[in-house]
Structure formats: C-alpha cells, structure tokens
Amino acid sequence: MSNVVPILSNGSKTGRTQSASVFFHRLELDAILQVYARGVSLGEWRDYSLDASKGWVGFSAYQRATEMPQYRLIKEPALARKQGLFRLVNSSGHILKRGPELGPVLRALEARLIKLAKKQA
After folding, report:
1. Fewest CB within a 10 Å sphere: which of 3, 20, 48, 110?
2. Does 49 reside within a domain?
C-alpha cells in the first residue's frame, strides 16, 4: 500500500510533460517585431498573429487580415536537431529557410523586404 504511482494525463510517471508549451523568448519576439515593423513601414504588411500549440509557436505576417499569411515564422523544438529550430514558410507552404538560430532565418525575410523596397523606389 505504500507504493503509490501517480497517473498523469500525459501518461508520464515522472511528472514532466513530453511536449511542453513553446513560446518565443522576449529577445526573439523583439527581433521578429523589428522585421515586422520594417514590413509595415514599406506598406507590405498590415496585420500579424501569434499562434501557439503543443510543441510549436508561430508568427504570421498578413498583407490583409482577411487573407492567408504571406509569411510564417515557426519555432518547433522537436525539429531542432533534425531540421533546425526555426523555419520560414511562405503563403503557399514552401519552406524558404530553416536554421538552428533565429538571426539567419530573419535575414532571409529581410532580404525579401529589401527587394520589395528597391522595386518601389
């Protein structure tokens, strides 16, 4: 009677969850919002959303709120060793850039914004 094994909702006996909630850290979110602000100043984006689920979190940039997002930046720790922690996805679902760090992935998005700025000038 002294051996009591707690039964947890995720099936784990240790108390740790297998897929903990994932969030952007403050510095990551700051860097993302800086790139988003550049897109807004160019008139390319007008809205954004943050999506969170078990195992991943995403930032989406929209040209109009009623449309599909132009770009999605997804952070998924489960893929960190295989494909990279961060990935940039366009509106058609193609992965444009993957990487273990946020900086190079955001630079790929900034490069696309710079091309748009040159076209407008």
Report:
1. 3
2. yes
